[in-house]
Amino acid sequence: SAVISQKPSRDICQRGTSLTIQCQVDSQVTMMFWYRQQPGQSLTLIATANQGSEATYESGFVIDKFPISRPNLTFSTLTVSNMSPEDSSIYLCSVNGQLGTEAFFGQGTRLTVV
Amino acid sequence: ELKVEQNPLFLSMQEGKNYTIYCNYSTTSDRLYWYRQDPGKSLESLFVLLSNGAVKQEGRLMASLDTKARLSTLHITAAVHDLSATYFCAVDVSFGNEKLTFGTGTRLTIIP
After folding, report:
1. Residue B42: which of A41, A103, A107 has the nearest Cβ?
2. In this complex, which of B45, B48, B104 lies closest to A42 when CB atoms are compared?
3. Which pLDDT value is given to residue B44?
4. pLDDT of residue A51
Protein backbone atom coordinates (compact mmCIF):
# COMPACT_ATOMS: atom_id res chain seq x y z
CA SER A 1 0.00 0.00 0.00
CA ALA A 2 1.01 3.62 -0.53
CA VAL A 3 1.57 6.03 2.35
CA ILE A 4 0.38 9.53 1.54
CA SER A 5 1.22 12.61 3.56
CA GLN A 6 -0.76 15.80 3.12
CA LYS A 7 0.14 19.21 4.48
CA PRO A 8 -1.38 21.17 6.08
CA SER A 9 -3.92 18.97 7.82
CA ARG A 10 -6.13 21.98 8.41
CA ASP A 11 -6.10 25.73 7.97
CA ILE A 12 -8.29 28.76 8.46
CA CYS A 13 -7.79 31.36 5.76
CA GLN A 14 -9.03 34.82 4.94
CA ARG A 15 -11.16 35.28 1.85
CA GLY A 16 -9.23 36.48 -1.16
CA THR A 17 -6.05 34.66 -0.19
CA SER A 18 -4.61 31.43 -1.60
CA LEU A 19 -3.55 28.18 0.02
CA THR A 20 -1.23 25.54 -1.37
CA ILE A 21 -1.74 21.97 -0.25
CA GLN A 22 1.08 19.47 -0.57
CA CYS A 23 0.81 15.75 -1.18
CA GLN A 24 3.82 13.47 -0.75
CA VAL A 25 3.76 9.75 -1.56
CA ASP A 26 6.27 7.18 -0.33
CA SER A 27 6.59 5.54 -3.76
CA GLN A 28 6.56 6.60 -7.38
CA VAL A 29 3.09 6.75 -8.89
CA THR A 30 1.92 7.61 -12.37
CA MET A 31 -1.26 9.42 -11.51
CA MET A 32 -2.27 11.56 -8.59
CA PHE A 33 -5.80 12.78 -8.07
CA TRP A 34 -7.23 15.71 -6.16
CA TYR A 35 -10.73 15.52 -4.68
CA ARG A 36 -12.93 17.97 -2.84
CA GLN A 37 -15.42 17.04 -0.16
CA GLN A 38 -17.77 19.83 0.75
CA PRO A 39 -19.35 19.75 4.22
CA GLY A 40 -21.69 16.79 4.57
CA GLN A 41 -21.22 15.82 0.93
CA SER A 42 -19.54 13.13 -1.07
CA LEU A 43 -16.19 13.44 -2.85
CA THR A 44 -15.86 15.14 -6.21
CA LEU A 45 -12.82 14.80 -8.43
CA ILE A 46 -11.12 18.12 -9.16
CA ALA A 47 -8.32 17.03 -11.46
CA THR A 48 -5.83 14.36 -12.42
CA ALA A 49 -2.14 15.26 -12.15
CA ASN A 50 0.41 13.49 -14.32
CA GLN A 51 4.11 14.14 -14.06
CA GLY A 52 5.46 16.18 -16.93
CA SER A 53 2.14 17.35 -18.33
CA GLU A 54 -0.70 19.72 -17.57
CA ALA A 55 -3.29 18.53 -15.11
CA THR A 56 -6.63 17.40 -16.51
CA TYR A 57 -9.56 19.16 -14.88
CA GLU A 58 -13.07 17.86 -14.42
CA SER A 59 -16.14 19.77 -15.42
CA GLY A 60 -16.72 22.72 -13.12
CA PHE A 61 -13.08 23.11 -12.11
CA VAL A 62 -10.58 25.40 -13.80
CA ILE A 63 -6.84 25.84 -13.66
CA ASP A 64 -6.99 29.48 -12.65
CA LYS A 65 -8.89 28.58 -9.50
CA PHE A 66 -7.12 25.29 -8.70
CA PRO A 67 -3.61 25.33 -10.19
CA ILE A 68 -1.79 22.03 -9.76
CA SER A 69 1.87 21.15 -9.91
CA ARG A 70 3.38 17.71 -10.39
CA PRO A 71 7.14 18.13 -10.46
CA ASN A 72 8.01 14.45 -9.94
CA LEU A 73 6.48 11.02 -9.43
CA THR A 74 6.09 11.33 -5.65
CA PHE A 75 4.82 14.86 -5.12
CA SER A 76 2.01 17.19 -6.12
CA THR A 77 0.50 20.45 -4.95
CA LEU A 78 -2.99 21.89 -5.26
CA THR A 79 -3.52 25.61 -4.79
CA VAL A 80 -6.92 27.01 -3.92
CA SER A 81 -6.80 30.56 -5.27
CA ASN A 82 -8.69 33.70 -4.35
CA MET A 83 -10.64 31.82 -1.73
CA SER A 84 -14.20 32.44 -0.72
CA PRO A 85 -16.26 30.78 2.05
CA GLU A 86 -17.70 28.43 -0.59
CA ASP A 87 -14.23 26.87 -0.87
CA SER A 88 -14.45 25.60 2.69
CA SER A 89 -14.06 21.86 2.24
CA ILE A 90 -11.82 18.91 2.83
CA TYR A 91 -9.32 18.46 0.02
CA LEU A 92 -7.85 15.01 -0.48
CA CYS A 93 -5.16 13.62 -2.71
CA SER A 94 -5.26 10.08 -3.95
CA VAL A 95 -2.97 7.73 -5.82
CA ASN A 96 -3.42 4.40 -7.49
CA GLY A 97 -1.70 1.34 -6.10
CA GLN A 98 1.21 -0.36 -7.78
CA LEU A 99 -0.98 -3.26 -8.82
CA GLY A 100 -3.52 -0.87 -10.31
CA THR A 101 -6.28 -2.33 -8.21
CA GLU A 102 -6.64 0.07 -5.36
CA ALA A 103 -6.90 3.78 -4.68
CA PHE A 104 -5.28 5.25 -1.58
CA PHE A 105 -6.13 8.55 0.05
CA GLY A 106 -4.21 11.05 2.09
CA GLN A 107 -5.55 12.19 5.44
CA GLY A 108 -7.05 15.30 3.87
CA THR A 109 -6.73 19.04 4.38
CA ARG A 110 -9.65 20.69 6.15
CA LEU A 111 -9.93 24.24 4.83
CA THR A 112 -12.11 26.90 6.39
CA VAL A 113 -12.40 30.26 4.66
CA VAL A 114 -13.61 33.19 6.74
CA GLU B 1 -22.57 11.51 -17.24
CA LEU B 2 -21.85 8.76 -14.75
CA LYS B 3 -24.16 8.72 -11.75
CA VAL B 4 -23.54 6.69 -8.63
CA GLU B 5 -26.41 6.49 -6.20
CA GLN B 6 -26.49 4.96 -2.76
CA ASN B 7 -29.51 3.88 -0.84
CA PRO B 8 -30.28 4.70 1.88
CA LEU B 9 -28.59 8.04 2.56
CA PHE B 10 -29.11 7.69 6.28
CA LEU B 11 -29.48 4.50 8.25
CA SER B 12 -30.06 4.10 11.94
CA MET B 13 -30.09 0.56 13.18
CA GLN B 14 -29.89 -1.32 16.41
CA GLU B 15 -26.95 -3.41 17.45
CA GLY B 16 -27.28 -7.03 16.45
CA LYS B 17 -29.42 -6.35 13.37
CA ASN B 18 -28.58 -6.98 9.73
CA TYR B 19 -28.87 -4.49 6.93
CA THR B 20 -27.78 -3.82 3.36
CA ILE B 21 -26.55 -0.66 1.66
CA TYR B 22 -27.12 -0.48 -2.10
CA CYS B 23 -24.95 1.21 -4.72
CA ASN B 24 -26.30 1.69 -8.24
CA TYR B 25 -24.27 3.16 -11.07
CA SER B 26 -25.25 4.26 -14.54
CA THR B 27 -22.49 3.08 -16.86
CA THR B 28 -20.37 0.05 -17.52
CA SER B 29 -17.62 -0.63 -15.02
CA ASP B 30 -16.02 -3.70 -13.54
CA ARG B 31 -14.25 -1.94 -10.69
CA LEU B 32 -16.08 -0.88 -7.60
CA TYR B 33 -14.71 0.30 -4.29
CA TRP B 34 -16.17 0.62 -0.82
CA TYR B 35 -14.75 3.09 1.69
CA ARG B 36 -15.47 3.99 5.26
CA GLN B 37 -15.14 7.53 6.60
CA ASP B 38 -15.27 8.44 10.27
CA PRO B 39 -16.15 12.03 11.20
CA GLY B 40 -13.29 14.40 10.46
CA LYS B 41 -11.17 11.61 9.03
CA SER B 42 -10.01 10.50 5.61
CA LEU B 43 -11.18 7.44 3.73
CA GLU B 44 -10.41 3.90 4.80
CA SER B 45 -10.49 1.31 2.03
CA LEU B 46 -12.81 -1.60 2.79
CA PHE B 47 -13.21 -3.58 -0.40
CA VAL B 48 -12.18 -3.54 -4.04
CA LEU B 49 -14.44 -5.57 -6.32
CA LEU B 50 -12.92 -6.28 -9.70
CA SER B 51 -15.28 -8.58 -11.57
CA ASN B 52 -18.88 -9.58 -11.98
CA GLY B 53 -20.00 -11.81 -9.16
CA ALA B 54 -17.14 -10.78 -6.88
CA VAL B 55 -17.88 -11.20 -3.19
CA LYS B 56 -15.58 -10.13 -0.40
CA GLN B 57 -16.02 -10.37 3.35
CA GLU B 58 -14.21 -8.82 6.27
CA GLY B 59 -15.61 -9.31 9.73
CA ARG B 60 -19.24 -8.21 9.82
CA LEU B 61 -19.10 -6.59 6.38
CA MET B 62 -19.64 -8.31 3.06
CA ALA B 63 -19.61 -6.65 -0.35
CA SER B 64 -20.77 -7.99 -3.69
CA LEU B 65 -20.82 -6.79 -7.28
CA ASP B 66 -23.26 -7.47 -10.12
CA THR B 67 -21.90 -5.67 -13.17
CA LYS B 68 -24.84 -6.65 -15.34
CA ALA B 69 -27.28 -5.01 -12.96
CA ARG B 70 -24.75 -2.22 -12.24
CA LEU B 71 -25.31 -2.86 -8.58
CA SER B 72 -23.12 -3.41 -5.57
CA THR B 73 -24.23 -4.19 -2.05
CA LEU B 74 -22.58 -3.80 1.33
CA HIS B 75 -24.16 -6.13 3.86
CA ILE B 76 -23.78 -5.62 7.57
CA THR B 77 -24.27 -8.62 9.81
CA ALA B 78 -25.07 -8.31 13.53
CA ALA B 79 -24.12 -4.65 13.66
CA VAL B 80 -21.98 -3.30 16.47
CA HIS B 81 -21.55 0.31 17.58
CA ASP B 82 -18.06 0.73 16.14
CA LEU B 83 -19.43 0.27 12.64
CA SER B 84 -21.03 3.69 12.90
CA ALA B 85 -19.53 5.78 10.07
CA THR B 86 -20.29 7.06 6.59
CA TYR B 87 -19.85 4.48 3.84
CA PHE B 88 -19.11 5.40 0.25
CA CYS B 89 -19.07 3.32 -2.87
CA ALA B 90 -17.01 4.52 -5.82
CA VAL B 91 -16.83 3.44 -9.43
CA ASP B 92 -13.76 3.48 -11.66
CA VAL B 93 -14.53 4.07 -15.32
CA SER B 94 -10.99 4.97 -16.28
CA PHE B 95 -9.94 1.42 -17.10
CA GLY B 96 -7.95 0.81 -13.98
CA ASN B 97 -6.48 4.25 -13.39
CA GLU B 98 -8.45 4.60 -10.15
CA LYS B 99 -10.10 7.84 -11.22
CA LEU B 100 -13.19 7.45 -9.09
CA THR B 101 -16.74 8.70 -9.13
CA PHE B 102 -18.19 8.51 -5.65
CA GLY B 103 -21.65 7.66 -4.50
CA THR B 104 -23.68 9.94 -2.31
CA GLY B 105 -22.64 8.16 0.87
CA THR B 106 -24.65 6.36 3.55
CA ARG B 107 -24.41 7.67 7.07
CA LEU B 108 -24.80 4.68 9.34
CA THR B 109 -25.58 5.02 13.03
CA ILE B 110 -25.66 1.94 15.21
CA ILE B 111 -27.78 2.36 18.31
CA PRO B 112 -26.84 0.31 21.38
Report:
1. A107
2. B104
3. 93
4. 83
